[in-house]
Write a structure and sequence with these properties.
The protein is mainly beta. The strands form six sheets. It has a five-stranded antiparallel β-sheet, with no helix packed on it. Strands 8-18-9-12 form a four-stranded antiparallel β-sheet. Strands 15-16-17 form a three-stranded antiparallel β-sheet. Strand 10 and strand 11 form a beta hairpin. It is elongated, with a radius of gyration of 18 Å. The termini are far apart.
Length: about 200
């Protein structure tokens, strides 16, 4: 019985859900996003991350309330623990989590830019990383229609960087997710190889 329990836990830990979104243009109206299938969650209260799926296991880190986390897989009904992969790797109690809520800053998608505007909406699911590289640690995963604020440089130009065949854009995390995230992060805006004509960000009107 103990072996079966260990095998069950091992199976859950190694499940991974990878969803590839079909390319879409910013002007196209998208289907409603199903938050239950998103890997983004937030903590309801201050809660520990455990090394193993048990409260008797060593606590790796304590996450404060409203911290955004990224699931390693989508838990099924009845799971008491779920593995997470950001902001750290470990196990957390499912009862302490809620679905990520879209921020309330927002506004319709527009195909025309507004001079000096820093408001953008996520067009398809993307990951924010600490630096503009796929090898950098990721901070969180953003769902479609999430409102974010980009950083500008001189001349009202969006701060961007070309790396690994991607065009990255810097996001102001403190303004985009007040009380949840801080500092800045980077998101892939354009894949120059696979979808060079598409953008992951749309203007807010």
């Amino acid at each position: 019985m103990e072996f079966q329990n260990l095998l069950y836990i091992f199976t859950l830990v190694n499940i991974a859900t990878f969803a590839l979104s079909a390319p879409v243009f910013a002007q196209i109206t998208q289907a409603p996003f199903n938050s239950s299938q998103s890997s983004c969650r937030a903590t309801k209260v201050s809660t520990p991350v455990f090394k193993e799926p048990s409260t008797s296991s060593n606590a790796i880190r304590i996450l404060s309330a409203k911290t955004r986390i990224t699931l390693a897989y989508i838990p099924v009904s009845g799971d008491r623990f779920v593995r997470i992969k950001a902001p750290t790797s470990g196990f957390i109690q499912t009862a302490a989590l809620r679905f990520c809520q879209p921020n309330n800053n927002a506004q319709n998608i527009s195909s025309k830019p507004t001079i000096g505007s820093v408001c953008r909406k996520i067009v398809r699911q993307e990951t924010i990383r600490r630096q503009p590289s796929t090898r950098e640690p990721f901070i969180t995963t953003l769902s479609p229609n999430t409102v974010v604020f980009v950083n500008l440089v001189t001349g009202n130009i969006v701060k961007s960087y070309k790396s690994e065949n991607y065009i990255w854009v810097e996001i102001d995390l403190s303004r985009s997710f007040p009380g949840e995230l801080s500092g800045n992060g980077w998101i892939v805006n354009t894949d120059l190889v696979n979808t060079p004509g598409l953008s992951s960000l749309a203007y807010c009107s």
